[in-house]
Write the C-alpha cells for this entry.
Amino acid sequence: MTSNTSTNFAYACKLSELKPNVPLPCEVNDRFVVLAMLDGKVFCIEDICTHDGGTLGDGELDGNCLVCPRHGAKFDLRTGAAMCMPATEGTLSHEVEIRGDEVFVQLKDN
Ligand code: FES
C-alpha cells in the first residue's frame, strides 16, 4: 500500500543499512546519491561534488557535512549547500521518506 503523497519516491536502501554518522552511497533510478543518518534523521544528497564532479560517497563526515575526498570541499548533508572552497555551488538535496525499514528518496532533477 502506498501513501498518496509518496508517488514520486524511489527505494534507496534498508533503514537498517544506515549507521549513525556513516555516509552510505546508493544508486537510485540510475542516479548516484549519498544517504546519512544525523541525529536519528536521514538525509540524502546527490553524489556529485560541484567543484569538479568528484564522487562524495567515499568522503568522511565532519559534523553535518560530507567532505569531498578529492580537494576537501564540504557539503551540508541536510541541505546540499557548499560550506567551503573549492566548491561554490551546492549539490542537490533530495527529500527522504521512511516507510518501515525502507528508505525512499524523491530525486530532484539535475
Ligand atoms: S572535486 Fe570535490 S573538492 Fe574538487
